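go over my protein:
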Amino acid sequence: MLKQALGAPDLDESVVAHILDRQLRMEGTYILHSKTASKNGGDFDFDTICVMPSDQFPKFIEGRIAYGEKFQQEKTKHKKAKSPWWNVYLVAMKARGNKIGSITDLKTSCLAAGRPDLAYKLVEQLQNALDSLKHKVEIDESVISDIRKEIAPAPWLRYKRERKVSDLPAYLNDVANTDKVGRLYNVLRKEFGFLPSPTDGSFEERMSIEDFRGLFTGETVTREMFEECQLVNSIYGDIASRIVQREEEIKLQLKNAQALWEAVRKSEDKEQRKSAVLARNKAQAALWEHEKDAKDQFSSLHLFVHYWAQGKEENRRAWAQAMNTIVTGGTGSGAVLFQAFPQEVVDTFAEVTGGQKVRVRLPKTINGHVRFDSEQRAWLVERLINPEGPEGEKKVFLFQYKGKRNLVFENTSAPAVMENS
């Protein structure tokens, strides 16, 4: 049969065996006929598939087979779009601004609302959106607009980009009986934890930093150590709270913009809908930009704390005890302790619980540390090795701390000469 399929009746048996063993019967490999692939809009450019074993997922497989074939989107061949090479940036911007994501979300909402017939209509538009990147085809905006007026967004879709469980609502309202994901969410959300208190909105399950008081004991801590740890803790808290406060403001703006869009999304006023969606998209873009900036700012803040702690080479447990005393006396998360002395915290937990000490992976840094002077100016001090004489120091001014949320990044009184160690 194989020889007949290949059109080579005189093919040597060793070659046939090689094709069967090394190509058609390879372990972990499935052979897909080209006609079967075309039914799913697929081709042979290294697409991947997922196989569900019937012995491990019998109910899922039975349900899928019983569902049958309700819809089939044939892959169409459109004329290739041609663009001169100097318009390459326009092609890139077109790909960046396509509507694949919004159509996918709308199709999901149709399925959640129990309207697979509308979802199937969107399949064609989704294919057009994909093909428009390379072919001369456009989506039918009227089809999408009519469906959007008829179908409300699935209530859980707006939370798909949340990064923290604590930002997820405890319960979703207006969940349709056909919305399997929404119903499952309302059942499982309480199992995730971090549910806000009905009285003040706080999270009762979160352990207070005060519970870690006394984690470090028995070390001799000086007044100067306490004062410097208090300074670092204040700087960390001020910068972190500023970032978080800005994020809360942007999230509130997005929430208001989303509410406005929800209120006018079915309006007949096209300009009103356009204005609302642009405002929503602008607020969403602002949040994404802030999240990127916040990640960079926290990364720099953590690196600053690490450099400061890196300079505490003698009696580090005493420094960790001083910082632990400072943070456990406040109401914050105590993150500065774990950023400054992660290895000491892990070792102490292991000693208290009888666990195993694990080496903490630290960020790559230069051979230096952060040092404060009498004017609360922070300097990044890098050690300079001199094979022919005494080692030197290279100082880089970082900022000057002048009280709550007051950091000055311009040095007005830099020392005239460098110090030698």
